[in-house]
Amino acid sequence: MSAPILLIPIALEWVLLITTLAPVALVGRFNTRPRLGLAIWFGSLLSAGLATGLALVVAIWSYFDTFVALEASLFGDSEWFMALAVSFGPWLALLLGGVSLVLVQQRLEPLVQTARQIKPAVDQAKQPLLNFMGTPVFAIDLPFAYAVAGRREIMVSSALQNVLNTDAFAAVLWHELGHVRGRHFGLKKLARLVRVLSPTMAASKALVLEVERLCEVVADDYAVRNLGNKKAPALESARAIFKDSAF
Ligand SMILES: [Zn+2]
Q1: What's the gap in Å between 31 CA and the centre of ligand 1?
Q2: 211 CA to middle of ligand 1, Å?
Q3: Among 139, 189, 180, 183, which residue's Cα sits nearest to residue 162?
Q4: For strand 135-140 and strand 147-149, is the pairing parallel, antiparallel, or unpaired?
Q5: How much distance in Å is there from the Cα of 18 to the middle of ligand 1?
Q6: Centre of ligand 1 from the C-alpha of residue 247, in Å
Q7: Distance from the CA of 217 to the center of ligand 1, in angstroms?
Q8: CB 94, CB 12: distance < 8 Å
């Protein structure tokens, strides 16, 4: 039986997937179920370790296959060269897998670091303002119109209530609630991750722009539906105040 060389790229793909997604998808998710979190963390790391081991075993196995094939044929004849050429495959796959793993890690590391540094600063600066349809709204001390939706919260600038009338302020909150209910934060994050991992691909740039644009359309629809025809124009008057910054 010859070595199942195809297992090498599959195993490496798995390692790539785990090491890429775990820091993004798993960090901070299991505060209420720490045991489950630990099990998933160690389970995925263990599976990545086993996959690496499997790839190495298959590569070494194929090395011995090559050795046997080289022994069986005459030095320098076509079969000998063929066996030698085929033997490079697994090592090439291992090398490419290793290189892409390093590249992905290099791109992700600063991203994760920045998020870790920014979050406590934002958490400290935000003040609870009100509760909008079950979603907490926080104010950040900024002198201009600003609003953004997080995973489960809405943040607005302290100046926002002063520069918008009541209807326009409500329209902005409905729009942001549309982002929260539609889980747009996660979608945008995922699209940006793809962009960071494949920065040279035009498709990934288009993906980010398109996801962001579509999220805005969905949030506007949600706001208009909940505002009703009479108050829907308030959304447009709010947008005029935001000028070129989005909300
Ligand atoms: Zn928006």
Answers
A1: 29
A2: 12
A3: 139
A4: unpaired
A5: 31
A6: 4
A7: 8
A8: yes
- Could you tell me how far CA 203 lies from the centroid of its own chain? 16
- Give the CATH number of domain 126-247; options: 2.40.128, 3.40.1130, 3.30.2010, 3.30.420: 3.30.2010
The answer to whether 148 and 155 are in contact (CB under 8 A) is yes
Q: What residues does each domain of the chain span?
A: 1-125, 126-247
Strand ranges (E), the chain: 126-132, 135-140, 147-149, 154-157
The alpha carbon of 162 and the centre of ligand 1 are apart by a number of angstroms equal to 20
Residue-wise pLDDT tens digits, 147-159 = 999 999 999 999 9
DSSP three-state, residue 142: coil
Read off the pLDDT of residues 137-196 as tens digits, 9 standing for 90 and up: 999 998 888 999 999 999 999 999 899 999 999 999 999 999 999 999 988 888 887 777
